[in-house]
Structure formats: structure tokens, C-alpha cells
Design goal:
By secondary structure, the protein is an alpha+beta fold. It has 5 helices and 9 strands.
């Protein structure tokens, strides 16, 4: 695999983004990677209207990683209340585990830290995803103990297969003096 080129998504990328994110998290195709949520949720993982709104917001960027002639990965980074927010992280299932996700996460952290001068990066992860939380902990994220309810009944987030889902907030300081 080539070194990825990063660029900001445009509205023309929305269909490809929906397909990528869905393939990484939902259905049988997602089982080729380790980030699947197929046993937890059915339905959509991201809606085109939500993507369109994310692209239009100030200090919000959907970052694409492209290599070998195509879209390989994506993530959303934004300024939310003076902190970086990281979400919609998806790597093509057959490429997961090869380091591309780590590079994309690092680039999103760089944007929040260097371009927007934000002190921390936050994200929410379904708290039963122990393997995914461990991935982020290895990258310096810490569990905050803060939980947010899963939006049951809002099909934009999928159709839950369990009734015990909730989000946990993870956080990482971005400035060198905060991490030293």
C-alpha cells in the first residue's frame, strides 16, 4: 500500500463516504475487519444529510485518506465547545490492522492541535467495544468515566440489537506540555 494522501471531503464524496463507513461497521462485509458493529447494530451508520451538515460547519472537516487510486479511510474532526472531536472513523475492512488508521488519527489530532489550537481531543465509543477502546488507549486516550445514552429510536444511528448500549467519552491531551 502506498503512503496515503489526505484531503478534505467535498459534497461530491458523500456517496463514497456512506459506502465506506457502512462497509467498515455494518453487515457481513464489515466482518472482514475488526471494527465491525454487526453484532450490535443493523441499519445505517451515517446518513448523507448528516455528512452534508458536517461538511458545511465551520471548523469541521471530514478527512479522507486516499491511496492506490481510491478512498481507503475517513474520519470526522471538528471543534466542539473548544475541544477537538474525532468520529466517523472508518478504514476499508481489508486494510484494517495495517497502520492506516493510526496515520489518519494522528493527522486529525494534528489538525485539532496545530491548526485549531485545541487542548484536547474527545470521542465517544460504544462502551461494550472493549477492543476498540483498548486501541484508543494505546494511542494515549483515557476513559473519562462520562457516559452518554445511545439514541434508541433514532434510526440515523442504526437499529440496535441490544438494549444495553451507551457511549463512553474518551479524551486525550493534545499539547506536549499537557502530555509530558
Amino acid at each position: 500500500m502506498q503512503t496515503p494522501a489526505f484531503r478534505s471531503a467535498t459534497p461530491a464524496d458523500i456517496d463514497a463516504l456512506v459506502a465506506l463507513v457502512t462497509s467498515a461497521y455494518r453487515g457481513d462485509a464489515s466482518r472482514a475487519g475488526w471494527t465491525t458493529e454487526a453484532d450490535l447494530l443493523d441499519g445505517s451508520r451515517i446518513e448523507p444529510d448528516v455528512l452534508r451538515a458536517d461538511l458545511a460547519r465551520p471548523r469541521s472537516r471530514v478527512l479522507l485518506a486516499e491511496a492506490d487510486g481510491g478512498l481507503q479511510a475517513c474520519a470526522h474532526v471538528a471543534d466542539e465547545d473548544g475541544a477537538g472531536y474525532f468520529g466517523m472513523f472508518a478504514v476499508r475492512p481489508g486494510l484494517q490492522g495495517g497502520g492506516l488508521g493510526k496515520q489518519l488519527l494522528a493527522e486529525c489530532e494534528r489538525i485539532a492541535r496545530d491548526e485549531w489550537q485545541l487542548p484536547v481531543m474527545r470521542m465517544t465509543v460504544i462502551d461494550v467495544r472493549a477492543e476498540l477502546i483498548a486501541f484508543y488507549e494505546r494511542r494515549g486516550y483515557r476513559r473519562t468515566g462520562e457516559f452518554k445514552p445511545f439514541p434508541y429510536g433514532d434510526t440515523r444511528f442504526g437499529q440496535p440489537k441490544r438494549d444495553d448500549l451507551r457511549f463512553e467519552v474518551l479524551e486525550k491531551p493534545l499539547h506536549a506540555e499537557a502530555t509530558a
